[in-house]
């Protein structure tokens, strides 16, 4: 009987300490919801972090003529950025929670993906962040052909600490509870089957 009680107690403690990998997508695009082409650009930037395709060789990325990015050095930063993630971070899938900064701060269009581990008590541990700045300030117009102005990889623990307060504040403003979002994702119907 004592063994069973100990096992149950250990399981309860393990559930309390369980961390979930989560991506908070902080969008600064004045509430524009049609952001698929922006997300395609960001996903391509993320592939470089996973070592799947370098920024320099990625033909789907579109850069602004005003952008003066050194893609060689950014590819090296992407590799360092990718190493910041724990080995099992991506293994169970990573739910995305979108937080809008409305009204549009700074006037620019940008998306900041903050990759965290969050426990059941709501404690947030930032792992890394990726900020992609696009040209223009009207996401409704720029969404047709978004062009990247800047890419910023953040993996320094000191620089990541600010995101804890930012995420908590935006979750309060938008009345978002992580546990509710995760439950909705769990109970969501499967994606539709498409005929090929």
In short:
With 196 residues, the protein is an alpha+beta fold.
Structure commentary:
- It is a single chain.
- Residues 12-16 have low confidence and may be disordered.
- With 196 residues, the chain is α+β, with helices and mostly antiparallel strands.
- It has one domain.
- The protein is globular, with a radius of gyration of 19 Å.
- Strands 2-1-3-4-5 form a five-stranded mixed sheet, sandwiched between helices.
- It has helices at residues 2-17, 36-49, 71-82, 139-142, 157-160, 162-173, 178-187, and strands spanning 19-28, 96-100, 109-119, 124-134, 148-154.
* CA-atom Rg in angstroms: 19 Å
Helix content bin: 25-40%
Q: Into which percentage range does the β-strand content fall? A: 15-25%
Mean pLDDT: 83
Strand pairing plus helix content: what structural class? alpha+beta
Instruction: List low-confidence stretches.
Output: 12-16
Shape: globular
Count of individual domains: 1
Report on the biggest sheet: 5 strands, mixed
- What is the helix/strand order? HEHHEEEHEHHH
DSSP E strands, number:
5
Distance between the termini: 56 Å
User: For the largest beta sheet, what order do the strands appear in spatially?
Assistant: 2-1-3-4-5
Count of runs of 4 or more consecutive helical residues: 7
């Amino acid at each position: 009987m004592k063994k069973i009680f100990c096992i149950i107690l250990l399981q309860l403690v393990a559930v309390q300490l369980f961390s979930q990998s989560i991506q908070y997508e902080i969008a600064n695009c004045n509430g524009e919801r049609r952001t698929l082409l922006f997300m395609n650009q960001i996903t391509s930037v993320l592939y470089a972090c996973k070592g799947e395709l370098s920024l320099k060789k990625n033909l789907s990325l579109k850069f602004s003529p005003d952008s003066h990015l050194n893609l060689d050095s950014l590819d090296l930063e992407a590799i360092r950025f990718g190493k910041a993630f724990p080995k099992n971070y991506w293994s169970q899938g990573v739910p995305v929670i979108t937080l809008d900064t409305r009204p549009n701060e700074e006037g620019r269009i940008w998306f900041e993906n903050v990759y965290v581990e969050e426990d059941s008590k709501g404690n947030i541990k930032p792992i890394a962040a990726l900020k992609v700045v696009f040209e223009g300030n009207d996401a409704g117009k720029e969404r047709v052909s978004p062009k990247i102005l800047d890419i910023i990889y953040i993996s320094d623990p000191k620089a990541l600490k600010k995101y804890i307060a930012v995420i908590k504040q935006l979750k309060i403003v938008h009345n978002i509870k992580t546990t509710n979002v995760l439950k909705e994702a769990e109970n969501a119907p499967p994606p539709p089957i498409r005929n090929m």
